[in-house]
């Protein structure tokens, strides 16, 4: 909202002024409006990470569904395998597109709102640059996204396997569906122009997709955690200010769902934005939900609904449902 020396600024309950209003100085109004804008921006960052993680879940879930279908149904054909590869390519495209959107949009919003020289912006840019240099999965995922966007689907083959496992002297058969990256075929198509030497040095012509996807997501989340840490003090300040405004409103108006922040210029132009408790709480909720991402261990975890090989160190963890 523009700041005007001739403007009037106040807070009123959502739904009108029947219970009065709290007048604000222009400086306090601008501070509240800025805190609200920046809090919403960082909530948006959490939502972008959430979208990326949800696309990862959908990709993993599709692999589990395919493996389960192979277990239950018979009569798979070449056409059904092609359909499955198309599904994996679609899920992968969603995942990689949301990763690109996260990088581009967070960078843009930080620079636009805080400035390129701001310490929080700098922390994000430095962490992203370091990850791009250190993490092979980030470079190959970037190449696959570019290839899928401009040329063709990148997953051209998968393997379906059955393996016997003994658990407590009981035989089990594990069914897996594994999408593969045919790196040398894709290299011949020009998919890896920026990382051709790294691809050429790989010992196998085909490599598994999902360990790279998991490592890549963990890397994005690690960069995100760096941004959280860099902005933590600022976020506490913004959210404390907004929480204080809501508490002041409750003391003045009683129980309210939220408040309107209103400015009125000398020309009679009225601008209004809303502030309510869930707006402040949502970022913290999203942050808690993704707290396990970014630890560097995602690629070493997988989901199973049946027993796997037992270890002497195995202990039950979590709660039954």
Show the helix and strand layout.
Layout: E1 8-13, E2 22-24, H1 26-72, H2 78-113, H3 119-134, H4 136-150, E3 157-167, E4 170-182, H5 183-188, H6 196-200, E5 206-208, H7 210-253, E6 258-264, E7 270-276, H8 277-289
Helix pairs in contact: 1-2, 1-7, 1-8, 2-3, 2-4, 3-7, 4-7
Structure report:
- With about 325 residues, the protein is α+β, with helices and mostly antiparallel strands.
- The protein has one domain.
- Helix content is about 55%, strand content about 15%.
- A hairpin with a 2-residue loop joins strand 3 (about 155-165) and strand 4 (about 170-180).
- Helix 1 packs antiparallel against helix 7 (about 210-255).
How far apart are the termini?
49 Å
Overall tally of structural domains:
1
Helical percentage: 55-70%
The radius of gyration is 26 Å
The number of distinct helices, counting runs of at least 4 residues, comes to: 8
Reported for the largest beta sheet, the result is:
4 strands, antiparallel
Percent strand: 15-25%
Class per helix and strand makeup: alpha+beta
What's the gist of this structure?
This protein has 321 residues and is of the alpha+beta class. The protein is built from 8 helices and 7 strands.
Characteristics:
8 helices, 57% helix, 3-stranded antiparallel β-sheet, alpha+beta, disordered N terminus, 321 residues, elongated, 16% strand
């Amino acid at each position: 909202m523009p700041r005007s020396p001739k403007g009037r600024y106040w807070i009123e309950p959502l739904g009108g002024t029947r219970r009065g209003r709290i007048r604000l100085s222009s400086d306090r109004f601008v501070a509240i409006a800025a805190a609200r804008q920046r809090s919403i921006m960082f909530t948006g960052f959490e939502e972008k990470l959430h979208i990326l993680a949800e696309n990862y879940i959908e990709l993993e879930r599709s692999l589990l569904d395919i493996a389960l279908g192979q277990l239950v149904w018979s009569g798979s054909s070449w056409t059904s395998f092609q359909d499955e590869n198309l599904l994996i390519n679609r899920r992968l495209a969603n995942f990689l597109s949301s990763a690109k959107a996260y990088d581009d949009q967070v960078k843009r919003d930080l620079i636009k709102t805080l400035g390129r020289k701001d310490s929080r912006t700098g922390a994000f840019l430095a962490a992203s640059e370091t990850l791009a240099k250190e993490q092979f999965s980030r470079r190959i995922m970037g190449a696959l996204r570019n290839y899928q966007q401009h040329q063709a689907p990148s997953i051209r083959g998968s393997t379906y396997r059955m393996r016997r496992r003994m658990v407590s002297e009981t035989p089990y058969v594990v069914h897996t569906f594994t999408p593969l990256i045919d790196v040398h075929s894709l290299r011949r198509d020009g998919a890896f122009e920026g990382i051709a030497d790294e691809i050429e040095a790989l010992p196998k012509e085909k490599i598994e997709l999902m360990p790279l996807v998991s490592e890549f997501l963990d890397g994005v989340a690690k960069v995100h955690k760096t941004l959280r840490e860099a902005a933590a003090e600022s976020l506490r300040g913004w959210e404390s200010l907004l929480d204080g405004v809501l508490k002041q409103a409750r003391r003045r108006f009683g129980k309210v769902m939220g408040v309107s922040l209103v400015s009125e210029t000398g020309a009679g132009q009225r601008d209004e934005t809303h502030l309510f408790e869930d707006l402040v709480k949502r970022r913290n909720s999203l942050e808690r939900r993704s707290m396990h991402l970014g630890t560097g261990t995602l690629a070493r975890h997988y989901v199973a609904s049946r027993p796997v090989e037992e270890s002497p160190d195995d202990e039950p963890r979590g709660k039954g449902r």
